[in-house]
Amino acid sequence: GNSVTQMEGPVTLSEEAFLTINCTYTATGYPSLFWYVQYPGEGLQLLLKATKADDKGSNKGFEATYRKETTSFHLEKGSVQVSDSAVYFCALGVSGGGADGLTFGKGTHLIIQP
Amino acid sequence: NAGVTQTPKFQVLKTGQSMTLQCAQDMNHNSMYWYRQDPGMGLRLIYYSASEGTTDKGEVPNGYNVSRLNKREFSLRLESAAPSQTSVYFCASSSGFQAQFFGPGTRLTVL
Predict the structure, then answer these.
(1) What is the 3-state secondary structure (H, E, C) of B7-47?
(2) Which tens digit of pLDDT belongs to each residue from B60-78?
(3) Which of A51, A66, A71, B28 has the fewest CB atoms in 10 Å of its CB?
(4) Cis omega before residue B61 (within 30°)?
(5) Nearest to A106 among B4, B42, B94 (CB)
(6) What are A44-82's pLDDT values in tens digits?
(7) Are A49 and A32 in contact (CB under 8 A)?
(8) Cβ contact (<8 Å) for A99 and B30?
(9) Which of A8, A49, A97 is the closest to B50 by Cβ?
């Protein structure tokens, strides 16, 4: 079956530090990959996505590259801010139409200290 | 453009009570989903609807029923609530093989 594994944290960094959150996956077929962010008390927001191997998704200074050879989709940001503190979820979607839901990792709680 | 809306935002039930969680989307999406979020578990799919008139079970369907009332609305019903159903419930929608858009969630406590 499909699965997503990501570091759970909490991950604590200082402002302006470099961020990497690891995500690896197992999937049948050819998945699309997503990163979602959840701020306290809110729903999930799509942060970025990649639909095929070697694609790079980017948004708000965050980047992730779809690596088929290592089955990974690590999230990176060059200089984090206090406002980036949130829970980050890696997810994959597979199958024709993608209508049968996404498979999520357990989430990584990121804390940025001033 | 409201996106995905959910009602209520919060709810407290006693064991055995029933309730329906409402979800609506205004993005003309074909597919809609119900997830639950529990600490340390990520999000788990309860039910989904690939199109109006169809519904299918997800990973954790036991204790729940759904209705796809029309293209916009997808409701989740708990017939006899149990403490194990204490969770945060999210509705989402998507258009085909695209990213899903989530509502703000319903925080349910079953005593």
Answers:
(1) ECCEEEECCCCCEEEEEEECCCCCEEEEEEEECCCEEEEEE
(2) 999 999 999 899 999 999 9
(3) B28
(4) no
(5) B42
(6) 999 999 999 999 999 999 999 999 999 999 999 999 999
(7) yes
(8) yes
(9) A97
